[in-house]
Design a protein that fits this description.
By secondary structure, chain A is mainly alpha-helical. Chain A is 66% helix and 0% strand. In chain B, the strands form 4 sheets. Chain B has a 5-stranded parallel β-sheet with strand order 2-5-8-1-9. In chain B, strands 3-4 form a two-stranded antiparallel ribbon. Chain B is globular and about 75 Å long. The chains are: A mainly alpha, B alpha/beta.
Chain lengths: 454, 331
């Protein structure tokens, strides 16, 4: 005869069922938890990493981590809390323990008052059988070593990224600090954007030329020279700004003279003929030489301008008046101005203001009206146009100045020559932008491209 | 505790007797263990069993052997197209009184008055004759003229029939089919079983069988079987299975909707529950599980499903429909 049961069989059945159900839910919850935890931790770590790159405050990653931990904890709590048993749960437990329907049936009869000898027998037998079931073996604790390790590592990584890894903003960065950091960054960028002075450019060029003259051709790259050329262009573009005037005034004592520029141009030209340098560098140096020479000429012409203005009398005063009329009377759709250089073939620039900008100051520049529109009348464009004009004038009208006379007549309104208006932007592109230099490696291919094979 | 012990003894006794019957029948009938077990289940449930199979597979031998094992009166009715109802139930015949006192009608019982009745090839008789069994099978009584005669218990009809597609057969009316507890399909024995059959039946000696139970034991076993408790969720499963055979039921399947004209009657649910109880007892359990219900679902439901024209035309087997239902209805 089997030993007596420790209590009423129906109570034992229900208690055992409750215990088994708790274990079942715990196992199920743990399994899901350790499936989800590494994913959540990885997401937090990703957020932290993105935060470092994007400059978010580390507190965001910490908040994500906290939210993930709270969510998972809530899930575990909800999953594990006691629930009312049901026939469905009894079926599942019965199936797991291979009790062949006995647990399900016993669960039903344990909750009902109607009893007879058969039901009692059934419950007693079920309770005894349940005593022998090792539920812990059926619902073992979830061993998720890898998942736990991965979760821990990722959580630590999240914390480390958020707290210790320096990013654009620290974890404890406050809003004012962030703002000041942005301001600092802005200042740095502005400093980078501001062009070098002519003296600085020349100092850098000097270094390059010294290297080239010392036979260290390999140390010079075409990009270095191009960079200096760009700086020179930027400088010209900024020349019309008030800041530059102040800068020049401050550094007037250090500003190079036309002679210095000419000397640098000669050195650059000489370096461009150095065979030890690569063709790209030589081309760049040649361009640099040309630019410096033009700059020297421009500077020399600038020095002479006051004299010209006084010596040329009526003609020049008329020009000045016309040049000023663009800003004073604001009547015409465009204004024309000719500025003549004193030396050589003479330099003339025709500036046309756009109709929309007729009310603005004419200023200097191709297309005129440099006032608000930065594309028009910039020094770089002006310089380019000036060079072009100079070359053309020198070639076609060597020593005769016939065109100059015609232009003057035109400006006086009695010219017989006709002019056609061109859009300022087109003029800038067509006249001032030099074609890009063909790389040495492609020159042969470029030549052969246009020669049809016989 | 005494009652619990008594229940335990009842279960053990039931199992012992059940096993004894099947074991003894198995001495003569080879390769049909499941058929034997289900036939005994039907007998212990108080139902009747219809055995279907081609001639020569041992249907009649099975019934003969059962009668021998159970020490019950046995009669056999060979159904033929010219068999009349009176040939089955009996008739009043004129008798002369002794000493010349005139004549009187005396009831002459037919072969139906036995504990075990073998209705051999039942579908060879006309529906009129087949219907003569209806009252006997359902009410365990026979009415002749104005007199109703009770049949001795246990009363058990074991009918055999050939597959319906064979010539000279009359399909059983649905009402009579529903009165059969189980419909069992006796299949052709396997090769290894054939060796055993030949060894036992072609020798000099006939295999003797032992009488295990008598009528009283069988009635007692019936009472034990009915005492087994069944939980409502399990009973609900049996009900849902039964209802699932109806084309307009929410528990049915696509096949039922398409091919079934009429589903199983509530008698089918009764059959499922009682048969499941016997099945559970036979496993030594004092409870009924969904597995017990599933184990007896096919023989209990297959003859209670009436196919529609499309089902007949597509030669759909009711076994297929029941199996699909077992897969679809959650226990």
């Amino acid at each position: 005869m089997a030993p007596e049961l420790p209590g009423a069989p129906e109570q034992l059945v229900r208690a055992e069922l409750n215990r088994a159900d708790r274990l079942r839910r715990a196992t199920s919850a743990d399994r899901r938890l350790w499936r989800a935890a590494p994913i959540a931790a990885a997401a937090c770590a990703a957020v932290a990493a993105m935060g470092r790159v994007a400059g978010w405050p580390g507190a965001i990653a910490l908040a994500f981590l906290l939210l993930a931990i709270l969510s998972l904890a809530l899930f575990v709590l909800v999953s594990r809390r006691d629930r009312a048993l049901s026939d469905q749960i009894a079926v599942e437990l019965d199936h797991t323990a291979a009790l062949e329907g006995e647990l399900r049936s016993a669960y039903y009869f344990a909750g009902h008052e109607t009893r007879d000898a058969w039901v009692d027998y059934h419950l007693v037998r079920a309770a005894r059988r349940l005593e022998g079931v090792d539920w812990r073996a059926l619902y073992p604790a979830v061993r998720a070593g890898r998942a736990q390790a991965a979760t821990a590592i990722l959580a630590i990584a999240t914390l480390a990224l958020a707290l210790f890894v320096p990013g654009r903003a620290g974890v404890f960065a406050s809003a004012p600090k962030t703002t000041s950091a942005k301001v600092e960054r802005g200042r740095g960028a502005a400093a980078e954007a501001s062009p070098l002075t002519i003296a600085e450019i020349l100092a850098k060029l000097d270094q390059l030329l010294v290297s080239a003259e010392a036979g260290k051709g390999q140390a010079i790259s075409a990009s270095d020279v191009r960079g200096l050329l760009e700086q020179l262009d930027k400088l010209k573009a900024a020349e019309n700004a008030e800041a530059l005037k102040r800068k020049d005034a401050a550094k007037q004592s250090k500003a190079p003279t036309a002679a210095d520029l000419k000397a640098f141009a000669e050195r650059a030209k000489k370096a461009a003929e150095n065979d030890q340098l690569s063709p790209e560098v030589r081309d760049s140096l040649a361009d640099m030489s040309e630019k410096l020479k033009e700059e020297a000429q421009a500077q020399a012409a600038g020095d002479k301008d006051p004299k010209d203005a006084s010596s040329q009398g009526d003609t020049e005063s008329t020009e000045t008046a016309q040049a000023q009329s663009g800003s004073s009377n604001k009547q015409d759709g465009g204004a024309q101005s000719v500025k003549e250089a004193a030396g050589g073939g003479g330099i003339g620039v025709v500036m046309m203001t756009g109709d929309a900008s007729s009310s603005k100051e004419a200023g200097l520049g191709v297309g005129g009206a440099a006032g608000d529109n930065p594309k028009n009348g910039q020094m770089a464009n002006l310089g380019a146009a000036l060079r072009k004009e100079t070359v053309e004038a020198a070639q076609e009208n060597e020593g005769e100045k016939t065109v100059t006379g015609e232009r003057r007549q035109t400006e006086r309104g009695s010219a017989t020559a006709t002019y056609s208006h061109t859009a300022p932007a087109d003029a800038a592109r067509g006249r001032s932008a030099a074609p890009p230099t063909v790389p040495e490696a492609r020159r042969q291919a470029l030549r052969s491209y246009f020669i049809r094979k016989q | 505790m005494t009652t619990i012990t008594a229940v335990n003894e009842s279960i053990e006794q039931f199992r012992e007797r059940f096993t004894g019957i099947t074991r003894e029948v198995g001495r003569r009938i080879v390769g049909h263990e499941e058929i034997v077990g289900l036939t005994v289940t039907g007998l212990l449930a108080g139902g009747h069993v219809l055995l279907e199979g081609i001639p020569g597979v041992g249907k009649t031998s099975l019934v003969h052997t059962l009668a021998d094992v159970m020490h019950l009166t046995f009669s056999r009715i060979q159904f033929t197209p010219d068999l009349m109802p009176a040939d089955i139930v009996g008739t009043n015949i004129v008798q002369e009184r002794p000493q010349g006192g005139g004549t009187f009608f005396e009831f002459q019982p037919g072969p139906i008055f036995a504990n075990v009745v073998l209705a051999d090839e039942i579908n060879r008789a006309t529906p009129k004759t087949q219907s003569a069994l209806l009252e006997a099978m359902q009410d365990m009584s026979v009415s002749v003229g104005k007199t109703t005669h009770r049949l001795e218990q246990p009363f058990f009809v074991l009918a055999t029939q050939n597959p319906l597609e064979m010539e000279g057969t009359y399909p059983l009316p649905e009402a009579q089919l529903d009165r059969f507890f189980f419909k069992l399909k006796v299949l052709y024995p396997r090769e290894e079983s054939m060796h055993e059959i030949l060894d036992r039946t072609t020798g000099i000696t006939e295999t003797p069988v032992q009488r295990i139970v008598d009528g009283k034991d069988i009635l007692e076993m019936r009472q034990i079987a009915r005492a087994v408790p069944i939980a409502k969720p399990v009973q609900s499963y049996a009900i849902r299975l039964t209802l699932g055979t109806h084309p307009d039921s929410p528990h049915n399947t696509a096949m039922v909707k398409r091919y079934v004209r009429y589903g199983a009657s509530p008698r089918a649910a009764q059959t499922l529950v009682i048969a499941a109880k016997i099945h559970a007892l036979n496993r030594g359990n004092a409870f009924v599980s969904a597995d017990d219900v599933r184990a007896v679902a096919l023989p209990a439901l297959r003859h209670r499903i009436l196919l529609n024209f499309e089902g007949e035309a597509d030669e759909i087997s009711t076994d297929t429909i029941v199996n699909e239902l077992l897969g679809a209805v959650a226990p």
